[in-house]
């Protein structure tokens, strides 16, 4: 390296960010995140106590264990979407069903917040599909040919590649682009020889 060059200036944060972006793009990341965000309030609210001044409002119900199970299952399904994306459709359907079950069981689905997050996460998981791999630049079949190497579509196109021009059509020509033959009218879509 010369004294003028700065060398490779890669920061660890940039490297980690690019690695995370690649990891995130290979799986239904947002589906898993929304599903886990939906499971957290469903599991938390039945065990939470809300303080209003000197008054404590307990939101625990008889179905506290049911909401805890639903919340933990939703968080587990979100992690499954991240780390085992091959079962994303099953995980998405299960997340939607658990979100619907949480409405009567877990304080109206975690006060509708958890229900909506889990429903959106399940729908995103079902609809996610892995991307197509990009074609390798060294693959000769995948790379488009340059214009001078492509096959011409007609003899006029071949002439245009070599500098020739297309001859203009005359008003009396029978072979017109609009499908009309002579001045007598429409020729049924076929061209007549002159």
TrEMBL record:
Q: Which residues form a coiled coil?
A: none
Q: Where is this region: Disordered?
A: 131-194
Keywords, alphabetical: Membrane, Transmembrane, Transmembrane helix
Compositional bias, Low complexity, is annotated for 132-147
Q: Where are the transmembrane segments?
A: 28-45, 57-79, 86-105
Domain of life, per lineage: Bacteria
Q: Does the UniProt entry include the keyword Nucleus?
A: no
**Protein name, entry field:** Integral membrane protein
Question: What species does this protein belong to?
Answer: Streptomyces microflavus (Streptomyces lipmanii)
């Amino acid at each position: 390296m010369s004294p003028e060059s700065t060398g490779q200036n890669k920061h660890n944060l940039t490297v980690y960010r690019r690695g995370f972006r690649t990891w995130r793009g290979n799986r239904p990341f947002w589906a898993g995140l929304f599903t886990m965000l939906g499971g957290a309030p469903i599991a938390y609210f039945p065990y939470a106590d809300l303080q209003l001044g000197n008054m404590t409002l307990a939101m625990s119900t008889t179905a506290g264990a049911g909401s805890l199970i639903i919340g933990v299952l939703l968080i587990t399904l979100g992690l499954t979407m991240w780390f085992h994306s091959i079962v994303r459709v099953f995980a998405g359907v299960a997340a939607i069903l658990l979100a619907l079950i949480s409405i009567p069981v877990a304080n109206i689905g975690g006060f509708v917040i958890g229900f909506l997050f889990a429903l959106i996460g399940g729908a995103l998981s079902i609809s996610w599909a892995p991307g197509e791999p990009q074609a390798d630049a060294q693959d000769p079949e995948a790379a488009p040919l340059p214009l001078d190497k492509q096959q011409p579509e007609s003899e006029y196109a071949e002439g245009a590649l070599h500098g020739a021009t297309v001859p203009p059509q005359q008003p009396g020509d029978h072979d017109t682009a609009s499908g009309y033959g002579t001045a007598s009218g429409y020729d049924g879509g076929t061209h007549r020889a002159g």
